[in-house]
Amino acid sequence: MTETDSNKPIASRGPTEKRAAQPIPRHTASELMERGTLAHIDHDEQTYTLRITRAGKLILTK
């Protein structure tokens, strides 16, 4: 480990740095919502709702 690595917060070190070489998937909100303002996202047997507000902000709720 280099001296600069030891100065990083623990959360920013480790496996996440090894995966950094892979591109991060990017999606537009309109793709997820199929041109609407709501989308349901399933994760670990839970359903979340992604909503676009009138002000154009994104809100993710359980």
Detail the topology: elements first, then pairings.
Blueprint: H1 3-6, H2 15-18, H3 29-33, E1 38-43, E2 46-52, E3 58-61
Antiparallel strand pairs: 1-2, 2-3
Strand content: 25-35%
Judged by helices, strands and strand pairing, the structural class is alpha+beta
Instruction: Identify the CATH homologous superfamily.
Output: Complement Module, domain 1
- Number of helical segments? 3
Low-confidence stretches: none
N-to-C order of helices and strands: HHHEEE
Overall pLDDT score? 82
Number of structurally distinct domains: 1
Quaternary? single chain
Sheet with the most strands: spatial strand order: 1-2-3
Q: What is the first-to-last residue Cα distance?
A: 39 Å
Q: Kindly provide the radius of gyration, computed on alpha-carbon positions and rounded to a whole number of angstroms.
A: 17 Å
Under CATH at level 1, the class stands as Mainly Beta
